[in-house]
Write a structure and sequence with these properties.
223 residues, 5-stranded antiparallel beta sheet, globular
Length: 223
C-alpha cells in the first residue's frame, strides 16, 4: 500500500476534488489568449475550478455517474492544458532517460489513461464542495509557482495545491504539472511506485503493469 492510499480512503471527498483540479484547467477556456496571459495563476485556478464545479453540479449525466462520458470529456478538454509529458517523465524518474522513444510514448499513453479514468471516476462524485484559494506567494515574473487552495465541504478543509508553469502556447497562459493531495505530491507518489516496478522488471515491466491496471479499471467501469 502506498503512502497516499490511506489518505484517499479516509477522505473520499478530497479525491472527488483532486480530479477536478486538472479538469479545471480546461473548463471555460473560451476567453482570448491575450486576456488569459495577463491572468495571475491564483486567479486562473480560482476562476476555472469555480466554473468546473458549477458545470459538473448542473450536469445530470455526470452526476448520475456516467464515467465513460466523463472520460471522453477529460481526455479531450483537460489534457491539452496539462504538461503531461513533464508529469510522466518526472513520475518515471531516471528511467525516463533510459527509455527508447517508443517506450516513452507507451509510458505516456498508459499513464494518461490511468489518470483520466481516476479523474473521471472522481469527478462523477462531486457534490457541494467549494474551492478557497490562499494568498499567492510569488513574484510577478516567476515562471513556476504553487497555487495553494482548500476544498471546503463537509468536515475539515482539505489541502489541494497545484504546481503551474507559464506556457506561451497554453490557452490560459499556464499549464498544470503536479498536484498536492493532502501533503503528498502526485508525481512524487507515483515515482516511488514506478521505481519499484523498474527496479524489478525494467521499463517494459512498468509499461505492462500500467497496461494491466488500465484494463482492470476498464472492466470495473464497464460493469
Amino acid at each position: 500500500m502506498n503512502r497516499l492510499t490511506p489518505l484517499l480512503n479516509t477522505r473520499r471527498a478530497f479525491v472527488r476534488l483532486a480530479s477536478s483540479c486538472l479538469l479545471a484547467a480546461s473548463v471555460g477556456l473560451t476567453t482570448g489568449v491575450a486576456q488569459a496571459a495577463t491572468e495571475a495563476p491564483d486567479v486562473f485556478i480560482k476562476r476555472l475550478t469555480t466554473e468546473l464545479l458549477d458545470i459538473v453540479k448542473a450536469d445530470k449525466t455526470i452526476l448520475s455517474g456516467d464515467v465513460t462520458k466523463i472520460s471522453v470529456l477529460v481526455d479531450q478538454r483537460v489534457m491539452p492544458h496539462v504538461n503531461f509529458q513533464r508529469m510522466t517523465s518526472s513520475a518515471v524518474g531516471p528511467g525516463w532517460r533510459q527509455a527508447t522513444p517508443e517506450q516513452q510514448k507507451r509510458l505516456q499513453d498508459e499513464f494518461k489513461t490511468l489518470l483520466v479514468r481516476t479523474y473521471a471516476g472522481a469527478v462523477s462524485q462531486i457534490n457541494d464542495q467549494t474551492i478557497v484559494v490562499k494568498p499567492l506567494r510569488a513574484a510577478a515574473d516567476d515562471k513556476e509557482v504553487i497555487v495553494r487552495t482548500e476544498v471546503h465541504g463537509k468536515g475539515d478543509p482539505i489541502q489541494l495545491d497545484y504546481r503551474v508553469e507559464k506556457s506561451a502556447d497554453a490557452p490560459s497562459g499556464w499549464r498544470i504539472y503536479n498536484l498536492n493531495v493532502m501533503g503528498v505530491w502526485l508525481v512524487e507518489n507515483y515515482r516511488s511506485q514506478f521505481a519499484q516496478e523498474i527496479n524489478a522488471k525494467g521499463i517494459d515491466g512498468l509499461i505492462t503493469s500500467l497496461a494491466e491496471r488500465n484494463k482492470s479499471n476498464a472492466r470495473v467501469v464497464s460493469k
